[in-house]
Amino acid sequence: MTAPALIVDASGKPIDYRREAANFTGRMASEITRIIVVAAVMGVAVVGVVAVAQNQPGDPGSGEPIDNVQSATTVDGTADVCVVFFYAPGCPYCAEVEAYLESVAEEREITVKQYNVRTESAELLMSYYDRFDVAQRDRGPVPIVFVGDEYAVGSKEGKALIHEALTRGEPVACPVVNESAESASAPPSLAG
């Protein structure tokens, strides 16, 4: 048997493959770490851009009313179903309810009165809490939806309440809780 040939580098020194393999592994580990850090930073940047883009005026969750949701009335001026909707700007669950209302408004006659809980509408919301005898555990979270004599807290529950009122096929008038609080907190341009 012949001995394996000795491999040398350009300077004539023998190459220690074990040491070279360890150096290569160390370089690869640091390169992989660098790639992971860059990917993480880019991911955070993308999420930030998406969050800003989703919170533009007029978009669901931005806190600004969506024009075609606000009112659709019959010829005699009455609405099939009236929904009173309290929301907070930037709330993703509120945006889900707004998007649902927008899709419903394309198919059905519905009046939506939406109020931002972070503005002067807080007093009006308290009136709704009292009028509807809202449980203490349900006071505070948004979205909260009032239809007829019922209320629902949360996106899923609010959409279900609206759907139920629409499928009954009976007109549902807007609840009036406190004339002075409602007129002081009236949302902009809700008339059809």
Automatic annotation (TrEMBL):
Native species: Halapricum hydrolyticum
Chain ranges of the Thioredoxin domain: 60-186
Top-level taxon of the source organism: Archaea
Protein name: Glutaredoxin family protein
InterPro entries linked: Glutaredoxin-like (IPR008554), Thioredoxin-like_sf (IPR036249), Thioredoxin_CS (IPR017937), Thioredoxin_domain (IPR013766)
Transmembrane segments: 35-53
Keyword terms, alphabetized: Membrane, Transmembrane, Transmembrane helix
